[in-house]
Amino acid sequence: QVQVVESGGGLVQNGGSLRLSCESSGLTSRIYSMAWFRQAPGKEREYVAALSWRGRSTPYADSVKGRFSISRDNNKKTIYLEMNSLKPEDTAVYYCAADFREIVPRHDYDYWGQGTQVTVSS
């Protein structure tokens, strides 16, 4: 079993920056890939970015490309999402996901966090 917990969300002004963290626990030694998703009110869950423990990252979502970056803390089995140039449309609940697979189909991760709210004011 794996648990993931997101943190770092909050209120930020348009154009600001924020860093989200996702800490994993449980059978973390078996985690091989992690990812970030987000879901805005009334909208479907959207893929943001992902990476594997082999150092390969999947493409960023077009909506965040050039503004967001995903990174990993190997020792803590923690991933981060550095968000820059935030826009009001980035407002969403951001979810962290983990999986024992290296390559995971979108939205098919086995373990999900509760989410952390990111609100970007105009």
What does this protein structure show overall?
There is one protein chain. Helices cover 0% and strands 52% of the residues. By secondary structure, it is mainly beta. The strands form two sheets. Strands 2, 4, 5, 6, 9, 10 and 11 form a seven-stranded mixed sheet that branches. The radius of gyration is 13 Å and the shape is globular. It starts with a strand and ends with a strand.
C-alpha termini separation: 40 Å
SSE succession: EEEEEEEEEEE
Helix- and strand-based class?
A: mainly beta
Figure out the total of helices. Answer: 0
Low-confidence stretches: none
Number of strands: 11
What's the shape? globular
List the helices and strands and how they pair.
Elements: E1 2-7, E2 10-13, E3 18-26, E4 33-39, E5 46-52, E6 57-58, E7 68-73, E8 78-83, E9 92-99, E10 111-112, E11 116-121
Parallel strand pairs: 2-11
Antiparallel strand pairs: 1-3, 3-8, 4-5, 4-9, 5-6, 7-8, 9-10, 9-11
Key descriptive features of the protein:
122 residues; 7-stranded mixed beta sheet
Care to give the gist of this entry?
With 122 residues, the chain is mainly beta.
